[in-house]
Write a structure and sequence with these properties.
Elements lengths: L4 E4 L13 E4 L5 H11 L6 H14 L10 H14 L4 H13 L6 H7 L1 E6 L2 E10 L2 H5 L2 H14 L4 E8 L4 E5 L3 H11 L8 E3 L6 H16 L1
Helix pairs in contact: 1-2, 2-3, 5-7, 8-9
Length: 226
């Protein structure tokens, strides 16, 4: 596989290439915002189907512009795309999409854990951080014990120092994070100044963005410890 372009809205990691490639990174809420900019910069028409896809991506990634990652660029681009996409009621459509994302009854606990999952290195130690977005937190919590078991398995399988899984209610903007062990408990307690209950859950309040609210707090904690 030959990579020629990289367009993203996350910070640059340890990416290396054998030859120079086109890179475009912007601090926006969704890569679809950048893609729409590229269309417009090159005077390319966006048809209804493409506008619908780009709109859906922005709604999903920014939680209908409610995520802390949302920028004015995302708002302006969404305002531009919606008429082209011919979506009459954007709020209703966003809620339908969120409900569809929350329907995980056909997924195994392992699949749920790894659906939106990334690994990070803190002080040369690897951690796994997963997120499960839902409109009904109780349905996800019903699988808590199975999720904790899968977290232990993934921790061992991938030789992780720690692993966390945040259950995020995208309507109420609430985060309950599963804590599988003592190492994770100590880190979360100090990094977020919260307690962990007997059900192995930490209430992280309205911290719904892994990129903007979870990872920076962990990075600050581990930097202080180094």
């Amino acid at each position: 596989m030959c990579i020629t372009h990289v367009i993203d809205h996350h910070k640059l990691g340890d990416l290396t290439t054998s030859e120079p490639v086109y890179l475009r990174f912007e601090p926006v809420g969704c890569t679809a915002t950048i893609l729409t900019k590229i269309y417009r910069e090159n005077n390319l028409d966006i048809n209804q189907k493409m506008a619908f896809l780009l709109t859906s991506a922005i709604l999903s990634d920014t939680l209908h512009l409610r995520s802390p990652t949302t920028t004015n660029d995302d708002r302006k681009i969404l305002e531009y795309l919606v008429p082209i996409a011919k979506i009459d009621n954007i709020k209703s459509y966003a809620n339908q999409m969120f409900e569809a994302k929350s329907d995980l009854k056909e997924f195994s606990s392992k699949q749920i854990l790894l659906l939106d999952y990334k690994t990070y290195t803190f002080n040369n130690e690897k951690w796994g951080i997963g997120t499960g977005e839902t409109c009904d937190m109780n349905k996800m919590l019903e699988r808590k014990d199975d999720l904790l078991k899968e977290m232990h398995k993934e921790k061992k399988r991938s030789n992780l120092k720690g692993i966390l899984f945040s259950i995020v209610d995208i309507i109420k903007e609430k985060n309950l994070t599963l804590i599988p062990g003592v190492i994770e408990e100590n880190v979360v307690r100090q990094a977020f100044q919260v307690d962990i209950n007997k059900q192995h859950i930490a209430d992280l309040g309205s911290r719904i963005s892994r990129k903007k609210q979870i990872i920076p707090a962990l990075e600050a904690y581990f930097h202080q410890k180094s």
